[in-house]
Amino acid sequence: EVVLTQSPATLSLSPGERATLSCRASQSISVYLGWYQQRPGQAPRLLIYDASKRATGIPARFSGSGSGTDFTLTINGLEPEDFAVYYCQQRSNWPRTFGPGTQVDI
Amino acid sequence: EVQLEESGGGLVQPGGSLRLSCSASGFTFTLYAMHWVRQAPGKGLEYLSGITNNGGSTYYRDSVKGRFTISRDNSKNILFLQMSSLRSEDTAIYYCVRGSERLDLGWFDPWGQGTLVTVSS
After folding, report:
1. Mind listing the pLDDT tens digit for each residue in A84-97?
2. How far apart are CA B20 and CA B6, in angstroms?
3. Does any CB of chain A come closer than 8 Å to the CB of residue B110?
4. Could you tell me which of A85, A87, A88, A101 has the C-alpha nearest to residue A25?
5. Nearest-by-Cβ selection for B111 from A45, A94, A99
6. Backbone φ/ψ region at A41: left (φ over 0), alpha (ψ -120 to 50), beta
7. Which residue among A64, A72, B62, B82 is least crowded, i.e. fewest CB within 10 A of its CB?
8. Positive or negative CA dihedral for B92, B81, B87, B11?
9. H helix or E strand, kind and range, residue A88
């Protein structure tokens, strides 16, 4: 099973700042990594797929990068609605696995 | 608008059974693989199971293999998860998720709002 590790666990920032979230895989997963956002009380939603492609309707302030084992989600200019938990997920191997999440707090 | 609506959650005793349903609308259900993902209270996300668009092939994570069964009724656009021999650690919100045209491709988008399953005596 591919283990995904996310850091930091919590990120405390202010609106307008840049958030940089990291996801590391226990083995190479090429670019088969996605990022999801989960706001309190809501279901997750897909932000980024194939490491760097924005899902439909996702604002340009969200960007992803990386390949192999190291990946980054960047949020440029945090909006109030961006304060949430972010999960990475791999689709390179079965079972699909998720990271433990990074909470982005005000 | 693509919509997924889960139902069937509730309180069940350890060792009991429950069947979850997911009603899909706003897209051609027969073209997509479908999946179940769960989230224990205050915890992260765990992938459980997936099924091909025609129901001909399925996948289960080891911890639910033999206890959970995924199926679909393409005539009614409904996805199911039959759960048996339930344990306290199965307590979670269960999400129905759309995949892509193949079980082994694509991402989870969108997600239903989830249904809560509580396993307790």
Report:
1. 999 999 999 999 99
2. 7
3. yes
4. A88
5. A45
6. left
7. B62
8. positive
9. strand A85-90
The pLDDT value recorded for residue A70 is: 98
pLDDT surpasses 90 at A76: yes
**How many residues belong to chain B?**
121
| Tens-digit pLDDT profile for residues B60-80 | 999 999 999 999 999 999 999
The pLDDT tens digits for A31-64 are 999 999 999 999 999 999 999 999 999 999 999 9
- CA-based nearest residue to A71, from A44, A90, A58, A84: A90
> Residue A98: which of B45, B59, B110 has the nearest Cβ?
B45
Give residues 56 to 85 of B whose Cβ lies within 8 Å of A. 59, 61-62
Q: Out of A55, A94, A101, name the one closest to residue B109 (CB).
A: A55
What is the rounded distance in angstroms from the CA atom of residue A47 to the CA atom of residue A93?
20
Q: How far apart are CA B49 and CA A2, in angstroms?
A: 16
**Smallest CA–CA separation between B32 and chain A, in Å?**
16
- Do β-strands A97-98 and A85-90 pair in parallel, antiparallel, or remain unpaired? antiparallel
Q: CA Rg, chain A, in Å?
A: 13
Q: Which residue of A has its CA nearest to B62?
A: A95
Q: Both tokens of residue A19? A: 């958030």
Q: Is the pLDDT of residue B36 over 90?
A: yes
